[in-house]
Amino acid sequence: MNESAVARFNRLADLPLQPVTPSRQGVGGFFRTAGDIWKHRQLLGLMIRRDIKARYKDSVLGLLWTLINPLVQLGVYFLVMGQILGAARGIPNFAVYIFSGLTIYGLFSETLTGATGSIVANSGLVKKVYVPREVFPLAAAGSALFTFSVQVIVLIVASFTLGEPPLSWNILYFFPSVAVILVWALALGLLLSALNVYLRDVQYLIQVLLMLALWSSPIVYAWTMVGDLVARAHMPGWVLEVYTSSPLTLAVLGFHRAFWSGATAADFPEHLLLRMLVAFVVGLVLLILCQRVFARLQGNFAQEL
User: Fold this and answer.
1) How far is CA 74 from the centre of its chain?
2) What's the mean pLDDT in 182-198?
3) Which residue from 14, 25, 64, 267 has the highest number of Cβ atoms inside 10 Å of its Cβ?
4) Distance between terminal CA atoms of the chain?
């Protein structure tokens, strides 16, 4: 090796190491990560499109499954819960009521399920190239939003078809409902996606929790029924408050307020919009905390995968 090459290697050895990833320390690491994700926004868009296409790859009906699945689910709940078990007798416009609740629940369920398994599903990329690892749960959320948007269109068409179009200012409750669901689903999705790398049982546990979430939200029954049950059982008032303060419950009630024309003021808790605002702010704090945990755990993703 000649003298110039030795000198060049010595100069390189004296240079300080520069990290290629943004610092993840402190609360400021959340905003640096957000900036890093923004730099990779084109990759995020490509991953969302890839997830949508891959979901229905080699399928004859393709994207029509985004309509078939919720419509079949609506038919089952409407027939079994509404007609056979009689829930429809106590809830006017039961079809719109149940479909609006199932639509916003579907966004939460699909986002959380997709985000939880996203790191493991993209293990090849995680081990080979650097991208902000948060991109993978975000891509799952983007794919879920696409499915959700299709189902919202079906919900609106169904409302007009049944002669109960959502033409009042209450339709604006759509936006805080979606915001609450997204911030909580992303927060929990980030946390669970990191835990799932180390403990694969998490992706199966989440299915059980989502089933419990479905039945613990006023989707196939009215919120007022819970209040009546609390009163009949002489439970303390805070039981109903805790139930109502669930982010999923608030989002479902917001969707009912937006699309269910058979509602009256008595069908909703007082200060619903304020409750949703509080849930959104708490969700933002939780999102920052969960991203901090995600950042601490992601260092060993490649080894664990």
Assistant:
1) 20
2) 92
3) 267
4) 40
Task: Extract long-range pairs of 163-169: CB within 8 Å, 24+ residues apart.
Answer: 164/93, 164/96, 164/261, 164/262, 165/261, 166/258, 166/259, 166/261, 168/261
Per the listing, tokens 């039945």 go with 215
- Entry pTM: 0.85
3-state DSSP assignment of residue 220: coil
pLDDT recorded at residue 122:
81
86 band by pLDDT with thresholds 50, 70 and 90: low
Sign of CA dihedral 271, 272, 273, 275: positive
Q: Within 13 Å and on the Cβ side, how many CA atoms surround 74?
A: 21
Look at residue 5 in the predicted model and tell me its pLDDT: 65
CB 191 within 8 A of CB 293: yes
Angle between helix axes 94-116 and 247-259 (nearest 10 degrees) is 140
Q: pLDDT higher for 304 or 102?
A: 102
Length of the chain: 305
Cβ–Cβ < 8 Å for 156, 166: yes
**Look-up of token digits 């929790």:** 209
Q: With 0-12 CB in 10 A as exposed, 13-18 as middle and 19+ as buried, what is 192?
A: buried
Domain ranges in the chain are 27-304
Task: Give the separation between CA 236 and CA 102, rounded to whole angstroms.
Answer: 29
Orientation of helix 272-297 relative to helix 28-39, angle to 10°: 80
Q: In angstroms, what CA-CA distances link 269 with 41, 194, 265, 272? A: 39, 36, 8, 6
105 near 265, Cβ under 8 Å? no
Mean pLDDT of 213-227: 87
Per-residue pLDDT of 97-118, as tens digits, reads 888 898 999 999 999 999 998 8
